[in-house]
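Lab notebook: predicted structure, single chain.

Context: the supervisor wants predicted structures on file for every construct in the current expression panel, including those that have not yet been purified. This is the next one on the list. No modifications to the sequence; it matches the entry in the shared construct table.
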Amino acid sequence: MKTISLWLTIFVSMINCRLATASDLVLRYDQPAEEWIEALPLGNGRLGAMVYGGPGRERIQFNEDTLWNGQPGPNHRPNAAESLPEIRSLLFEGRQQEAEGLAAQTFMGDPLVLAYYQSFGTLHLQCPGHQNATSYRRNLDLNHGLATVAYQVREINFTRQCFMSSPDQVLVWHMQADRPGQVYVNASLSSLHDQLSFASPAPNQLILQGQVRYGELTFAARLVVLSEGGQIRTTQDELRVSAADSVTILLDGHTSFKRYDDISGDPMARCEETLEQAQTFTYQTLLARHIRDYQSLFHRVSLDLGPSSPLPLPQRLTHAADTDDPQLAALLFQYGRYLLMAGSRPGSQPLTLMGIWNDSTGPPWGSRYVVNINLEMAYWPTEVCNLSECHEPLFGLIQDCVETGRDTARNHYDANGWVLHHTTDLWRCTAPANGSNHGIWPTGGAWLCHHLWEHYLFTGDRDFLAQEAYPIMKEASRFFAQTLIPHPQTHQLISSPSNSPEHGGLVAGPTMDHEIIDSLFDITCQAAEILDQDAPFVQRLRRLHAKLAPPPIGPQGDLLEWLQERDDVDHTHKFMSHLWGLYPGTVLLNQEEIRAAARQSLSLRGDIPANWSRAWKINLWARLKAGDKAYHYLQKIIEENTASNLMTLHPPFLIDGNLGLTAGIAEMLLQSHGAALEILPALPQAWPEGSVRGLCGRQGFEVDIAWSQGKATEIKIHSKLGRRCNISHLGDLNVLCDGRQIQTEDMGMTHSFATTAGQTYRIVPQEVD
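Prediction complete. Output recorded below exactly as produced.
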C-alpha cells in the first residue's frame, strides 16, 4: 500500500509539474542585461522600451514610433518615365549594366536614401547602495506583459515591476521594499539627439525636449514620480526620491508628427494630456487596466508541445540541439505573438525592421519598412494567430502609400493607379530607392494588397472589403494593367524594369513579379464580383491575366527565378523571391508540375544563416506538408539565430525572424488557404503529443486541436460567420454541436458540414471516440 501511495504521489507531482511547465511563459534570468540585445522588450504599439534590470543602475531605453529623421516630402523624380523605354530596350538586348547605369541617373528617387527610425532616449534610475545586491532574479512574464526585477540588499527585499500600458499610453515603473522607508531612487533622462533641454515644471516632474538629429521633427518626453511616503527633491535634470515605501514612475514621449505630410503637432501638450489622465489612477489600477487589456489579446491562443527543460533560458538555448525541450518552440511562438501585439496596435505606426525597439540613430538598414519581404513577414501571424486588429497599422501605411504612390506612378511610369517599390519610411516615399540594381521593384504595393485580401478572408468584413481593400486593390491592378508589356519573343506580358529581390540585378520579367501580379488580378476580380462592381474592368483583368508569362521551369526541374536560366548568379541566395506563389501566395499550388518545380527549387536553395530567411523556409516547407524539414529550420533559428532575450538575429535583430517563425509554427499546425481546413498538415515527428487553442482559419473559423502519437484526437471549430465548414479528410468523423450529431457530407478529400455563427463544433475521429 505504501508503494502504491508513493507512486501515486510521484505521478501526481509529475502531472502538476507538467501543467506548470505547459503554462510557464516566463523568461527567467539570474543576472541583469549588459547589452541592449539582452534587455527585455516592452511595448504598447506606440511606445517601446528595453529594460536592462540593473539593481544599482537601471537603464530603460525607450522609443516612440514616429521618431524618424528626414522630413515630409515625396521622393519621386519628375519626368523619370521619359527614360523608361530606353531602360526596357537595354534589358531586352541583354545590356544589363548599361540599363542599371541609365536608371541610376534618370529613374531613381530623390532623395535616394530614405529616412531612419530613431532611438528616442533612455530613462536612468540609480539606487545607491544596491550594486552588491544578492538573490537577484529578472524575468519577462508573457502571461501579463510584465518585466520584473527582484533582489535583496541588507536582508531587505526589493521588487520592481515595469510594463507598457496600452489603455493609458504610458510606461509604468514601480519599486517597493518589504520594509517601510527603504526606497531611494534618482531618475534622469538622456537622448542621442540635438538641441536638448531639460526642465522640472513641478517638484515631481521632469521634461526632456529636443530635435531629431538630421531631421525636422521635434520631440518631448515627460516623467512623473509618485511616491508613498518619503521625499522628492528636484534639480533641473534629475529627480531624487528618498525614504519612500514605494515609488511609481510614469513616462510618456511624443513627437511633432501628425501624419506623413504634417509635423505641426505639439509633443509637450500630448505628453501633458496623457500623464494628467494616467495620474488619476493608482499603481494597482494602472496594472489591472494593463493586464485586462493585454490578456484580452494574448490569451486568445495557447500552445502546448510537450515538456520543458528545467534549465534557465540562456542554457536552454545553448543546449537546444541536444536537449528534449519541445516547449521552447511554444515559448518562441508566443513570444512572436507578444512582440506583434507590443509593437503594432490600432492607431500606431506599423512594425519597422526592428519593430519599435532601437537604441541607435543609425540602425541596420535604417530600420525602415522593407517591402520586398520583411514588412510583410512581420504581419504573417496576425490573422492566423488571432491578433487581427494588430494588422490595422499596416493598412494605414498602405492607404498613405496609395496617396503618395499615385505621384510615383505618374512620374516614373506615366501610368494611373499607385505603385510602391522595395522600401518606404515614415514619410511614405514610394519611388525607387537605394540602388538601381535592387531598388527598382514595382510590386511592393501589389504584395501589400495581399494582406488586405487575407484580412477579408479571415474576418468576412464586407464593409472593410468595400470601403478600404477593394479600392486600393483596384488602383494597384489599374497600374499593372497599364505598365505590363509584351515580351518581344514570346509576346507574353511581363513587368519591366524590375528585379528578383534582392538577387541578380535589374531585369525584365522576374518570376516573383508575375506571381504577385497574377494573385493581385485574381483577388481584385474576386472582390469586385463579391461586391457586384466593375464588370468591364474585371473582364479586362481576366484577359490580361491569361496573357501573363507563366512560371518557367529549368533544366533541373526547378522553378526559375527569371524568364530563362542564368549561370551568373548565386542559386543559394537568402531570398526565395520566386517562391512567393508557394508562400505567402498560392499560385504555385494550382498545378502539380509547378508545385513540384517549386519544391525542387526550395531543395536546391541551401541554408543561409539569416533569421528571416530561415523563417520563410519554415513556412515554405510547411506549405509543402514537409513538417520535419520545416522543423529543421525552426531548430536552426533556435540554435543559431536567437539571443538570450529570444529576439532573433540576422545577425542584427530583425523582428521578421521572430514573427515569421511564429507564423511558420501556426502553418505547421493549421492551414486554410485551400478549399478546406487542414489539421496538423506539417506536424513534425518531434511533436508527437500536444494541443493548440485559438488558431484562426479563413472563412471565419477558430480552431482548437489536441493530438497524440502524431494524430488529431479532438478538434473544436468555432464558427464566427456561419459559413459552411470543409475539413481535410481525417477518416470517419463524428461532428457534435451542443450534444447533437451534425450531418456531414463526404466530399472525397474533405468532409463538409453547415455551421451557425456563434456555435462551436466538436469533431472526434471515430477511431478515438
